[in-house]
Design brief:
- β7 and β8 form a beta hairpin.
- This protein is α+β, with helices and mostly antiparallel strands.
- α1 packs antiparallel against α6.
- The chain starts with a helix and ends in a 9-residue tail after the last helix.
- 23% of the residues lie in helices and 20% in strands.
- It has an eight-stranded antiparallel beta sheet with strand order 1-6-8-7-3-4-2-5.
């Protein structure tokens, strides 16, 4: 069995175990779960929403004159099975996005977005991979810090986006540990309050170049979870074409409302967390 297939099976098994995440695609109401998907679809092309030009070989078959009812067609006439991701331009003006997550940095080739995420403070907790509800368990552990009862200021500070999940792999490309992190909002970045929970830590991440792919929809969509499985394959293939190197022992996923991302980190820019938790083997591209 190839290491890519093993990784996919592991990721699918871990990701599908998380509970359904309900939200409404409409304006109004309270909280960030409300957003206007119709407005997003109308204002942004697929390329704008994804943040890169998709490679034609990664697209589904073109519409060759068949009935277009209920089909999602992009501007080039390709059928899209997944939902259009929420554009960062649609989201970041009202949310505290991680610096440069909405970068206009040019990406070589097709099929991925290259961007430099600035250094910053994050609140992090370890994921218990033995739990079926690992996502909810980690999220609920981090939530009190942002809500106020879990930080030294006893003040609600909120959180930035995306939520980052890191998957650490061993030399056999088996997931050995994982973490979930919330970005500390810009107002508290320079001097973040201490965590009152010993299982939640505040850590500073170094600047890192990442390569990412994205898709949209909700967790109830038929194509939502299968997308999680194949996006890392597409990403590594696109990077290999451009002779770009990535750190093989770390996978990242970014979660927004209406947008999901898979990310790989540039091999030559290794953040402190990778040095401390990654294997000693020399990093190589797939």
């Amino acid at each position: 069995m190839s290491r890519a297939l093993i990784l996919i099976l592991l990721l699918v098994g871990l990701i599908v175990a998380s509970p359904p995440h309900k939200y409404t695609k409409k304006k109004g109401g309270k909280g960030h779960h409300y957003w206007n998907a119709t407005e997003n679809d109308a204002l942004y092309t697929w390329e704008q929403a994804e943040g890169y030009l998709e490679c034609e070989e990664f697209l589904n078959f073109p519409n060759l004159g068949q009935e277009t009812k209920d089909l999602k067609l992009d501007e080039r006439g390709y059928v899209r099975k997944q939902g259009k991701p929420r554009a960062l331009e649609h989201m970041c003006p009202t949310r505290d996005c991680v610096p440069d997550v909405n970068s206009t940095e040019e990406s070589p080739g097709c099929g991925f977005k290259r961007r430099t995420l600035k250094s910053g403070n994050w609140t992090t907790t370890n994921i218990n991979l033995g739990r079926v509800d690992w996502f909810r368990d980690a999220y609920k552990r981090l939530a009190p810090y942002r809500g106020g009862e879990g930080n030294s200021l006893k003040t609600r500070i909120g959180m930035g986006v995306p939520i980052i999940t890191k998957w650490y792999l061993d030399a056999n490309y088996t997931v050995i540990s994982a973490t979930m992190s919330f970005y500390v909002p810009s107002l508290y970045q320079k001097n973040p309050p201490a965590s009152l929970n010993k299982e939640v830590r505040v850590e500073q991440w170094d600047e890192v170049v990442t390569y990412s792919r994205t898709w949209g929809g909700t967790r109830d969509d038929v194509e939502y979870w299968p997308q999680s499985a194949k996006q890392f394959d597409y990403l590594s293939e696109a990077l290999s074409r451009e002779d770009l190197k990535w750190y093989s022992y770390l996978r990242l996923t970014g979660s927004y409302i209406g947008r999901k991302e898979v990310m790989l980190a540039d091999r030559d820019i290794v953040v402190r967390e990778i040095k401390e938790k990654g294997p000693d083997d020399k990093a190589e591209s797939e």
